[in-house]
Design brief:
The chain is mostly beta strands. It contains two helices and 14 strands.
Length: 210
């Protein structure tokens, strides 16, 4: 995951741009070649997405689309690479898959118990969902930078053509003031993807690694 160090003006809102990039590597790359990019432009005050995009390359499967948000009409316009357009009814507090993570960083996990759920209104592909985010507790994991305590969350995903399994996505969020993604695991139709923190910069607080 990466965020650019400059701002963008989208829908007359000053926005961050963030991306999640997933690439297969090593021997697995010869079996299932994955080159996925999920991105979002979300405003710097309310973390509300103004535009999102994704580029999916998994072996021969290809998918490209952009989503444009119009909060004056509570609609999202989803445009695919072949110029087909879908209009999706949304709520004012909707999140996409990338901005949703930054929204979840703001939540208070301290008082939660294992298997408690958080609510998040989200858009995925060309549909609007009331997502449930399952809290799976805390754990201590080993990273490139040392060991650290993390909260574990998992969105309860609707039926789709990309992910498989009961809890196909798990995210480990650092239990410190930064709340950065330390690790992500995803079970895709074509295989598994694991994202690990390998680099960080410009954080507001020191990381709590030992």
């Amino acid at each position: 995951m990466r965020m650019t160090d400059k701002y963008f003006l989208v829908n007359n809102k000053v926005c961050f741009r963030a991306e999640i990039i997933g690439n297969s590597s090593g021997t697995f790359d010869h079996i299932v070649r994955i080159r996925d990019v999920w991105g979002s432009y979300f405003d710097s005050v309310y973390f509300q997405p103004q535009k999102s995009f994704r580029s999916i390359q998994e072996n021969k499967y290809r998918k490209r689309e952009e989503t444009f948000f119009d909060y004056s009409k509570n609609l999202a316009r989803v445009v695919s690479e072949n110029d087909t357009t879908e209009m999706v009814k949304i709520s004012p507090n909707v999140q996409d898959i990338v901005s949703g993570y930054y929204f979840l960083r703001l939540q208070n996990y301290v008082g939660l118990k294992k298997n408690d759920t958080l609510r998040l209104n989200g858009i995925f592909e060309d549909s609007f969902y009331n997502f449930k985010i399952l809290y799976l507790g805390k754990t201590r994991i080993k990273t490139k930078f040392g060991k650290t305590n993390c909260f574990i969350i998992s969105p309860i995903m609707p039926e789709n053509n990309l992910f498989r399994g009961k809890n196909p996505i798990k995210m480990w969020i650092s239990d410190d003031k930064n709340r950065i993604p330390v690790k992500v695991e995803a079970e895709l139709i074509l295989g598994s993807v694991e994202l690990d923190l390998i680099k960080h910069a410009n954080l507001k607080y020191p990381l709590a690694f030992e």
